[in-house]
Design brief:
About 60% of the residues lie in helices and about 5% in strands. The chain has a two-stranded antiparallel sheet. The longest helix is centred in the middle third of the chain and has 18 residues. It starts with a strand and ends with a helix.
């Protein structure tokens, strides 16, 4: 599954597998639409802060994602 989008310019699309790897997870909860949003956001964070920052922040990012999915924030 490819996820991605355009922000301030062209951004390489991240696969869900790449996002899982960056977050150190085997599975992430969410609908197809929610997971696409996650891939876009993680891609933006990689673009802004780098892959190392995402890896270092993975637990916070996963906690925030769990909250977003549980609250049904993405429609």
């Amino acid at each position: 599954m490819f996820c991605g989008g355009l922000s301030r310019g062209f951004m390489a699309e991240l696969t869900l597998e790449k996002v899982l790897s960056l977050l150190g997870a085997q599975h992430i909860k969410g609908s197809e639409k929610e997971l696409k949003v996650l891939c876009i956001r993680i891609g933006e964070l990689v673009e802004l802060n780098g892959e190392d920052w995402v890896r270092q922040s993975r637990q916070t990012l996963l906690d925030e994602w769990e909250y977003i999915v549980n609250q049904g924030i993405i429609h």
